[in-house]
Fold this sequence. Notes:
By secondary structure, the protein is α/β, with parallel strands linked by helices. The chain is built from twelve helices and ten strands. The strands form two sheets. It has an eight-stranded parallel β-sheet with strand order 7-5-4-3-2-1-10-9. A two-stranded parallel sheet has the order 6-8. Strand 4, helix 6 and strand 5 form a beta-alpha-beta unit. The chain is globular and about 60 Å long.
Amino acid sequence: LERADRERVAIGHFNVSELSTLKAIAASARELEVPVMIGVSEGERGFVGVRAIAALVRSLREEAGQPIFLNADHTHSLEGVREAARAGFDEILFDASSKRLEENVRETCRAVAAIRSIDPSIVVEGEVGYIGSSSEILEKAPEAAREMTTPEEARQFVAATGVDVLAPAVGNMHGMLREMVEGATEKRLDLDRIASIKRATGLPLTLHGGSGTNLDDLRAAVRSGMTIVHINTELRLAWRRGVEAALQENASEIAPYKLLEPVVERISAVVRAHLRLFNVRG
Length: 282
Ligand SMILES: [Zn+2]
């Protein structure tokens, strides 16, 4: 993270809830020789298993010598934080961003203390400003997603909680509107705000909800100090389209690994394109 921050590149963060997506992400990052982060939300880790995903990512790192890391994405409870810390996650995002700032600070302080007491080497991320909650195709933007984080809120939050990484609301949003999926609109980012929040905090920043963002904005956001960029909805979309195509094209095939091979390739194309964009230097 420090190196990415210094070099003004970003680490791609991609969510998984099954094996073909994990395989696609790990292989793409290996091929491009860049570090990568795997994210699992509470829902995703509930499906794959907290210890199971930690073991999978650890085995990829140890067997291939690959810089691949695991983040407990959007963890809302202290219980969830402790479970991820004990399972050996590299990063934990404690998310109380839907609450008022004072309450968010209070709860995040508790989470930071809980994580540090289990393993002080875990990177802790906090979030200020609400950007919606589900990586799905949405009919309309969540109401609160229009409230962006101010540099002063960011400064106060970081000073009060001691988090290592901050996720602000800067025009980003979880999920994609239907017209974004169709390519009719794109998310636009407030680049001046990103630069101001970077100056106010001096920390690595995370851009959540990166799917469907204007590519020039994404590039500029990385140059302005976004150190981690999350992509989930676009991978889910590639997964679904890939599965549908594979089932249609192979009507009598029942071996999952044969059906899923083209799905892995489809997801890989999305991952590679983003990793290339995030890792352009200068
Ligand atoms: Zn997120």
